[in-house]
Amino acid sequence: VQLQASGGGLVQAGGSLRLSCATSRSTFSSYNMAWFRQAPGKEREFVAAIRWTGSSIYIGDSVSGRFTISRDNAKNTVYLQMNSLKPEDTAIYYCAAGGGTYYYLTRPNDVDYWGQGTLVTVSS
Description:
Elements: E1 4-6, E2 9-12, E3 17-22, E4 32-38, E5 45-50, E6 57-59, E7 67-72, E8 77-82, E9 91-98, E10 113-114, E11 118-123
Parallel strand pairs: 2-11
Antiparallel strand pairs: 1-3, 3-8, 4-5, 4-9, 5-6, 7-8, 9-10, 9-11
């Protein structure tokens, strides 16, 4: 599965961005999806996850109340809506797909496929 992430860029603190992650794979709808991020010098961090059905989501503590995740299985695309951005949200954001038996894809070791990453920079 090839995942193509887009939508990153430079935004001022308090602003919003929407990231997209698309694939041409027809089996996309059978994968649990997630977004992770990695800031310079830090480990990759879980951000948000969505079940393969799209029926439930799980948001990481550091972005709870500001970010949300959604998916459109007809378009083979998952989204990350980021509001009230802070400078500490600056990172490379990666979309991820997993087909395991866990309920939410939250651990990097459970990821089967990674997108190439898109850079989000939040200025103060």
